[in-house]
Amino acid sequence: LVAEVLDVMRQLVQDGMTMVIVTHEMAFARAFANKVVFMADGQIVEHGAPAQLFGDPQTPRLHTFLKRFKEGYQL
């Protein structure tokens, strides 16, 4: 079911739909978002372009979080 939902969302993005999505699907966020906001404990920890957040996290909290998702994440 998750794959089907992501496919619909992927199509909406390609059609130009603006969405706010809360997800733990890091590969999807990296591939389709134009802005990512990383929150922890109700606070914004980092925000910016996916390439920036996934490629060069500035906080230990985001760095630790991303290590849990090996798919396409490199430091």
Note down, in words, how this protein is organized:
With 75 residues, the protein is α+β, with helices and mostly antiparallel strands. The protein is 45% helix and 15% strand. The chain contains 4 helices and 2 strands; from the N terminus they run H-H-E-E-H-H. It has a two-stranded antiparallel ribbon. The radius of gyration is 13 Å and the shape is globular. The model has no long low-confidence stretch (mean pLDDT 87).
Number of E strands = 2
Strand order of the largest sheet: 1-2
Following the backbone from N to C, one meets helices and strands in this order, namely HHEEHH
The biggest sheet, with number of strands, parallel, antiparallel or mixed sense and barrel status, is: 2 strands, antiparallel
Radius of gyration of CA atoms, rounded to a whole number: 13 Å
Key traits:
single chain; 75 residues; alpha+beta; globular
Task: Write a short abstract of this structure.
With 75 residues, this protein is of the alpha+beta class. It is 45% helix and 15% strand. A two-stranded antiparallel sheet has the order 1-2.
SSE diagram, text form:
Layout: H1 2-14, H2 26-32, E1 36-40, E2 43-48, H3 50-55, H4 60-67
Antiparallel strand pairs: 1-2
